[in-house]
């Protein structure tokens, strides 16, 4: 189960609704990350808050409404603004800097023209099991923004979802050695979902505006049957598109761009036996479906995202008790977004069925 939260109004009002209705999920997030930061990076929460505050000036210049929304969340949940800011900068804290790195994982896949008339993107999100209790399904109608639906962790204002303008986002974490004090990744994700086109979305994450590295898979359909999916790897050194020339895309948790590999050190110690194998398996699944002429739709995506080949390090991920604790991730949720039809299917956890969520259809 996941809590649905419907929000509208000003940035402050949207934040307050998120904070008040999702208070327990936010508390769960705070408890999870306080434990993770200290357990694996020997960083106390007060130190993490100091790191997060380094981003505040850039966020204020980038989009002041994001600050107002985080203020509203803090007020609604009865916590400090710095706590919410730290949650939204958790990737910059967890995926870079000193100490052991927390390995946030997932597998993303996309199909678009010329393979399919529909642009469909989807992913698993693999992470520490305790964060299943922190999930929220936010339905947001902000002033002068497209309507959006987003699966997120309590307190985070940007993550994975889609909007009524036909822009959709899936997300892969990348573990690297460099970050800046620019815009945290999850706020970049929210900027994408605030966009009316793919071009607008890219403009908000290009040119070194984002503080750390990640893979953003962005699907777009203009409402006239014209769709496309692109996969920019983003970084403090700009972006680089990877894959997609044949109408399909996959990504996991290692850098694929040769240009970014020259700028960043990939610190994913498990890329060869986990991330790269998951990507090769995702590639294989798509190529197999294409080879046999199988029509690709949401049901096919369900099968792909449920794949357990190489279990536990499979696309549908399970905990591996033989690896360090910070790598004991499992699939927390899986999502399939038909961008063309403005509909999505969601499965929470490792069991059960995909169920349709708010589709924006009139």
TrEMBL record:
Gene3D superfamilies: 1.10.10.2120, Penicillin V Acylase, Chain A. It comes from the Bacteria. Residues 118-351 form the Peptidase C45 hydrolase domain. NCBIfam families: C45_proenzyme. This is Isopenicillin-N N-acyltransferase-like protein.
